[in-house]
Design a protein that fits this description.
Structural class: alpha/beta
Distance between the termini: 39 Å
Low-confidence stretches: none
Pathway: Carbohydrate metabolism; galactose metabolism
Radius of gyration: 19 Å
Order of helices and strands: EHEEHEHHEHEEHEEHEEHEEHH
Catalytic activity: UDP-alpha-D-glucose = UDP-alpha-D-galactose
Number of strands: 13
EC number: 5.1.3.2
Shape: globular
Protein name: UDP-glucose 4-epimerase
Number of domains: 2
Family: Belongs to the NAD(P)-dependent epimerase/dehydratase family.
CATH superfamily of the largest domain: NAD(P)-binding Rossmann-like Domain
Length: about 325
């Protein structure tokens, strides 16, 4: 298939693009490089440095796309609270523009990068696709609105649509890893401390009702996420919008992440304990039973040590590149 990948120079998008190419698909990437990196792009791939608002100016039906994998968008929860308009404009309006192009270009398949953070996380049970949706941020709300649009688009126009609601993407594949500025995700921050780029890690809350008192989260290797995107493209059905949660189904506490990183890196990783942060869920773990059953998706690298080990290898290699 010929696939248009939006956000293909970003962390997850670049791994998806490489995986599509390795599986024999033709790939065209769109990315405005506002948060992505040109050196993430596969060698020789067709690339357009444009916004998703401008795809209809760059492509037509004659380009012959079979599907779109849509990963471009704003992802920072904190930023979405203080600047929600960015999230409406990019995540919602940008996707509406992309869907309008898909309709006119007769593109039949659409896979969307969604999020598990839209679910009600007040409970302790694994999150399923039927868990109540209660977005706690404009970011999560924008993703849910797009999921709702895709449901209508599938019913009205026959689009074969899939929303993949992720847990926390982590890990790395060779030279493709997390590079957020500023970094806001736990595993890369822990590894920045291990590498001496931060003096210590701030640990918010050690009095939660969990075995070690810290929050529990689900981490999924970025290569396993990429594999799910390929399966979603293959299994997308016209006039249907399917939602799949993607996670390991096993939670790891913040302290488990820190201790595993200490073991993997061999560095002490100093920690400063602070009070709980408002809004942090106690436990957030995704059930991926539906994806396993219907897509045949099985995570190949579910172990936390492997996820952190791959991220550490990337962090060290990237640091060497920065110094050279």
């Amino acid at each position: 298939m010929k696939i248009l990948v939006t956000g293909g120079a970003g962390y997850i998008g670049s791994v998806v693009a490489h995986s599509l190419l390795a599986s024999g698909h033709e790939v065209v990437i769109v990315d405005d490089l506002s948060t992505g990196y040109a050196d993430n792009l596969p060698t020789g791939v067709k690339f357009h440095e444009i916004s998703i608002h401008d795809v209809d100016q760059a492509f037509t039906q004659r380009d012959g796309f079979d599907g779109i994998v849509h990963l471009a968008g704003k992802i920072e929860v904190g930023e979405s609270v203080v600047r929600p308009e960015l999230y409406w404009q990019t995540n919602i309006v940008g996707t509406l523009n992309l869907l309008d192009f898909a309709r006119r270009a007769r593109i039949s398949r659409f896979v969307f990068s969604s999020t598990c953070s839209m679910y009600d996380s007040s409970g302790m049970a694994p999150l399923t696709e039927t868990t109540a949706v209660r977005p706690a941020s404009p970011y999560a709300h924008s993703k849910h609105m797009v999921d709702t649009v895709l449901e209508s688009e599938a019913r009205a126009h026959g689009l074969a649509a899939v929303s993949l609601r992720y847990a926390n993407a982590a890990g790395a594949v060779d030279r493709l890893g997390e590079r957020h500025e500023p970094e806001s995700h736990l595993i890369p921050i822990v590894l920045q401390v291990a590498a001496g780029r931060r003096p210590h890690l701030m640990l918010y809350g050690t009095d939660y009702p969990t075995p070690d008192g810290t929050c529990v989260r689900d981490y999924i290797h970025v290569s396993d996420l990429a594999a799910a995107h390929l399966l979603a493209l293959q299994h997308a059905v016209p006039y249907q919008h399917e939602i799949y949660n993607l996670g390991n189904g096993n939670g790891f506490s913040n302290l488990e992440v820190i201790e595993t990183a200490r073991a993997v890196t061999g560095h002490p990783i100093p920690v400063h304990v602070a009070d709980r942060r408002a809004g942090d869920a106690v436990v957030s773990v995704a059930s991926s039973e539906k994806a396993r059953t219907r897509l045949g998706w099985v995570p190949a690298r579910p172990e936390l040590a492997d996820i952190i080990g791959d991220a550490w290898a990337f962090a060290k290699s990237h640091e060497i590149e920065e110094r050279s």
